[in-house]
Description:
The chain is mainly beta. It has two helices and 17 strands. The protein has two domains: 32-157, Immunoglobulin-like (Sandwich); 162-275, Immunoglobulin-like, CATH 2.60.40. The protein has helices spanning 3-24, 74-79, and strands at residues 36-42, 50-54, 57-58, 91-92, 99-101, 104-112, 121-129, 134-144, 149-156, 168-174, 182-188, 194-201, 210-212, 215-222, 231-238, 243-249, 268-273. The longest helix has 22 residues, at 3-24. It is globular. The chain starts with a helix and ends with a strand.
Amino acid sequence: MTKNKSIAVLLSVVALASCDYEKNAVQDITGVAPAARVRFFNFSVGAPSVNFYANDTKMTAILTATCSGTTVSDTCRNTGAEATTGVVYGSVGSGGLYAGIEPGQYTLTGRIAATTDKDLAVSSLGKTIESGKNYSYYMSGFYNTTTKTTDVFLVEDPFPAEIDWTAADVRFVHAISNANPMTLYARQVESGVEYAIGGEVAYKGASGFTKLPDGSYTLRTSYAGATTNAMSRTAVSFSAGTVYTITARGDILSAVTTTGCATTNRTCLDYTPNR
């Protein structure tokens, strides 16, 4: 073997050893988390199931459990295929979790998940997402089957930065388009003490967060000057150190449920932890 060939072989060995080291080395997957967060609600009466997007980036989706058909793609085998169920009415995307998002100007949309009218945007809202803030995006009101559109609004979720282990933080969001402004009240079962969760809130509005002691509660909403409740819900537990949003949804003219929120159009007080 000549001297030049020996050098070439040595360099090849070094190169291969370097590649093998990189392949087997511990990978650095650290990085800066997105500086803002948003979560998505499908609370529009009669709305189809949707996937939510920020511009053209899909923020929520559900994968099928299996791949089917005579021709199965590598993508389906490796990562699964997107289900056509999406986020159904009465549900929160990603199981109620927030999705990270970089600050900036976005068009947030809810797009049909089913095969028919696939990816048609039924809700759309332009918004500047600010660094360090949390948001909730609501499809609300009633779905218009003619125009295939629905109401939408976005609220900031300014819950305390520090966890308060002595109390729960609770707020009220109004997502019923045919209901007047109302106030949410929470009565603690153990003590009988009733707390007002902020003041009167109009459609597409949100109250501030109110601190409540640990315990089981009966919730109710009331219109100004009314002697009867507009809505109610029993047996709701609030735990210290946790932040909650109670949202009024459904059709105010339909039957009222007091024990929970079924996936129908009935009026109910949805109970979703923020953190």
